[in-house]
Specification:
With 383 residues, this protein is α+β, with helices and mostly antiparallel strands. It contains 14 helices and 16 strands. The radius of gyration is 26 Å and the shape is elongated.
C-alpha cells in the first residue's frame, strides 16, 4: 500500500476547500457572538468515564478508545463535543443563571454516518444552559436557521420531533418499558412488522399508539392527527403543544414533523429538530433539548443546542472564486517593504512573486501589481 494513502473516509482538505471551511467558521462564530454565545475549546482527548457520561450508546460506538501511557487509563478521542460543553457548564463555569456557549473543532468517528461522509467532521455548535422554557428551544432553532442562511442556503427544511411523545407512551405501560431500547430502534427504522412482534405483550392502547408513530410524519397537520390518534396523556399533550409553537416560530422555513425520528433519544429530553438542504440526503444540522446530561457531572441544568459539520456544509457550496490580490516583485528595497506592510495592514493580499514564478498563483487572482514609477511604489490595474 502506498504510504501516502489515508484511512477510509479520511481526507486532506485542499486550499480552495479549506478557505471555504475557514471563512464559514469565522462567519458563524461571529454570528454566534452577536447573539451572546461565548466560545469554549474542549480537549480532543478525555478519560472515557467523563467523555461518554450521558452521551448514550450511539456516541460510545462512534468513539475511538486507547490506553493513556501516562496513567494507564482508557481515554477516548471525542466523537461529539456536546457532552464536553455540558461538563464545562456544570463543573467548571458553575454559573447559576443562563449561559450561552459555542464551540468549533474536529471530532473523530469510528464509522462514517453516511456513504460519503468523513470520519473527521469539523463540528460547530451552540448551546443554552439554565433555562427550561420553550424560549431557549426557539432561540436555538432560530440560530440554526440563521446559520444556514448565513452560509447561503435559502431552501431549508426543518423537521421537528419530541421525545416526550414516546416517553409518555412507554411510561404508561410497564411491558413497553421492558423493551424500550428495542422499540426506539424499530421506530427509527419505521419497522412495522418488528413493532407488531415486540408490542404483542403491551396493552392495546399502547400497542396502537406505538404502531401509529411511524406513520405520523409529513406536513404540520401531523400534529392534528396525532392529537386524535394518540392517547390523551399529559406528556403527549405538552409535547404536541410545544411542537405547535416551534412550528409557528419557524418563520419562512419549510416545516415537517416526524414523531418517530428518535436519533439521540438516549440523552434528548424534549423537542428535537433536524435541518435539511437540497442535494444532501442526511441532515446538515441536528439539535434539541437534553436537560439531564449535566446531572452526571454533579449539576442537572436545563440545556438545549444544535451542531453541524462545517466540512460537509462547505462541500455543498460552490467553489470559491480566486481572491483578488496584488502582485509585487521580489525586491529588498526598504520603501517597497514599507508599502507591502501598509497594504497588508489595510487588509489587502499582496504576494511577492519569487524569481521565475510570476504566474504561478493558482489560488489568487492578481488583478493589480505594485510597480516602481518615479521613485514611488504604486498600484496599477492589470486588466
Amino acid at each position: 500500500m502506498p504510504n501516502w494513502l489515508l484511512p477510509e473516509n479520511i481526507a486532506d482538505v485542499l486550499p480552495s476547500e479549506a478557505r471555504k471551511v475557514e471563512q464559514l467558521r469565522r462567519a458563524i462564530l461571529d454570528r454566534f457572538r452577536s447573539y451572546g454565545y461565548e466560545l469554549v475549546m474542549p480537549p480532543l482527548l478525555e478519560y472515557v468515564e467523563s467523555l461518554l457520561t450521558g452521551a448514550g450508546q450511539d456516541v460510545d460506538l462512534r468513539t475511538f478508545k486507547l490506553i493513556d501511557q501516562l496513567s494507564g487509563r482508557t481515554i477516548g478521542i471525542r466523537a461529539d463535543m456536546t457532552t464536553q460543553v455540558a461538563r464545562i457548564d456544570a463543573h467548571l463555569l458553575n454559573r447559576t443563571g443562563v449561559t450561552r456557549l459555542c464551540y468549533a473543532g474536529s471530532v473523530l468517528h469510528t464509522k462514517p454516518f453516511g456513504l460519503h461522509a468523513t470520519r473527521e467532521p469539523l463540528q460547530i455548535g451552540a448551546e443554552i444552559y439554565g433555562h427550561a422554557g420553550l424560549e431557549a428551544d426557539a432561540e436555538i432553532q432560530q440560530l440554526a436557521l440563521v446559520t444556514l442562511a448565513l452560509a447561503g442556503f435559502d431552501q431549508v427544511r426543518l423537521d421537528l420531533c419530541h421525545v416526550g411523545v414516546i416517553r409518555a407512551i412507554i411510561g404508561a405501560d410497564s411491558e413497553a418499558g421492558k423493551v424500550e431500547a428495542e422499540l426506539v430502534s424499530l421506530l427509527r427504522a419505521k419497522d412495522l412488522p418488528g413493532l407488531r412482534e415486540v408490542t404483542a405483550a403491551c396493552n392495546p392502547e399502547t400497542r396502537d399508539a406505538l404502531l401509529a408513530l411511524p406513520g405520523l410524519y409529513g406536513e404540520v397537520d401531523v400534529l392534528d392527527r396525532a392529537r386524535v390518534i394518540l392517547p390523551r396523556l399529559p406528556g403527549i399533550t405538552t409535547a404536541l403543544d410545544e411542537l405547535q409553537e416551534l412550528v409557528r416560530l419557524a418563520g419562512s422555513a419549510a416545516v415537517a414533523v416526524d414523531l418517530a425520528d428518535l436519533r439521540g433519544y438516549q440523552y434528548e429530553s424534549g423537542a428535537t429538530f433536524a435541518l435539511y438542504v437540497p442535494n444532501l440526503p442526511n441532515a446538515v444540522a441536528r439539535g434539541g433539548r437534553y436537560d439531564h446530561v449535566g446531572e452526571a457531572f454533579g449539576r442537572a441544568r436545563p440545556a438545549t443546542g444544535f451542531s453541524m459539520d462545517l466540512r460537509e456544509l462547505a462541500r455543498l457550496l460552490p467553489m470559491a472564486s480566486p481572491e483578488r490580490s496584488i502582485r509585487a516583485p521580489w525586491n529588498q528595497d526598504l520603501q517597497l517593504h514599507a508599502r507591502l506592510a501598509q497594504l497588508r495592514a489595510a487588509g489587502e493580499i499582496v504576494i511577492q512573486a519569487l524569481p521565475g514564478h510570476d504566474d504561478e498563483l493558482e489560488e489568487f487572482d492578481c488583478d493589480r501589481a505594485l510597480v516602481l514609477e518615479n521613485g514611488n511604489w504604486i498600484i496599477k490595474n492589470l486588466g
